[in-house]
Amino acid sequence: MTEIDMEARQWMMQKFKDAGLTTHMDGAGNVCGRLGDPDKPAILIGSHLDSVPAGGMFDGTLGVVAGLECIRVIQENNIDVNCPIEIIGTSEEEGRFGGMLGAQALSGNLTLEWLESARDPKGEYLKDALEKCGLNVHDTLRARRDPSSMKAFLELHIEQGPVLENSNKCIGVVDGISGVFKWLVKLKGKADHAGTAPMDMRSDAFMGLADFAHEISRIIDEEGTDKSRITIGRVDLKPGYAHTIPGEAHFTIVGRDMQEDVMHQLANSCRKVLSSIARKHKLYFEYEQMSWLEPKHFSPEVVDLIEEEVKALDYSYMKMPSGAGHDIQFFTDLTPTGLIFIPSVGGVSHAPDEWSHWDDVEKGTQVLLNTLLRLAQ
Ligand SMILES: [Zn+2]
């Protein structure tokens, strides 16, 4: 939601117009280009146009540009489609203000309170950023689409991970998005002189954290699945001096799985292990659950349809979950959904050297087109 971002949106809208689509930008900054009847339920093809700072050129934008290409192919070949098709370039998927503004606005997952209070890490209010771009919170709420106006939602995206490349597959048929929980954990012991406190008379919070880190693979072996992930992504030791025993360790735990009951098992196990480690090191343990997002599953009919089309094209593929969130996750309860991945070279994303081979881009777009045409019949 910046001036440059708006320039890119205007550019995209012009491309929609050039293709003869009916275009508009909604109150959340989503740019929409529609082929066909304005009132009938449409197949939506969406992904995001925003990027992280110093991000790559495929993340998000691929899905929007590929959607436009599908429309061009339909037009050039005079293919009859029985329903309208709408391409949507969403806004703020990367979560500068938390959440995914554009997709949440379209799916009706926003509140006025949140819109008025959301700020970016530098403290800029979302409502101010919207106003600088000629938008406002009330119009953002009005961007909601009625579920009855949607026939399906499809997204093509880069994998942003190494699995497809390492497995030598060119298409990922994604069956769902992992659920995620995030904890803020505090282990509290006693800050002390690193020279005078004997090793057996310490309450060293970092030692507790280190012990826990070593238990993660066992927790996953015993309670998790091959889709489980547990990550300690941020650590803060207090007081944080080289010559002082850390009296407190504050850290995050982010856990993921495709099944919610597995997420509960992982969370329970983390809690038990942390309590017993805290006892061993004479620490006090507390945690706060910052968020719990349930796993999202795409429609089996659409997933099967994508798989059939990939097979018919004779492309190599695998079924896989997505460990990252995407715009489409807000539509799973509203309309049939399907997500297609193509490989990321070296698994790199959110970096300037993010890349996908043009051959894979073409294949991904072909799968998107064929799936779209099947759904439109
Ligand atoms: Zn993305």
Automatic annotation (TrEMBL):
It comes from the Bacteria. GO terms for molecular function: hydrolase activity. The keyword Hydrolase applies. Transmembrane segments: none annotated. Residues 178-281 form the Peptidase M20 dimerisation domain. It holds the Pfam family M20_dimer. InterPro entries: Amidase_Cbmase (IPR010158), Bact_exopeptidase_dim_dom (IPR036264), Peptidase_M20 (IPR002933), Peptidase_M20_dimer (IPR011650). Keywords: Hydrolase. PANTHER family: ALLANTOATE AMIDOHYDROLASE, ALLANTOATE DEIMINASE-RELATED. NCBIfam families: hydantase, PRK09290.1-5. Belongs to the peptidase M20 family. This is Zn-dependent hydrolase. It comes from Kangiella japonica.
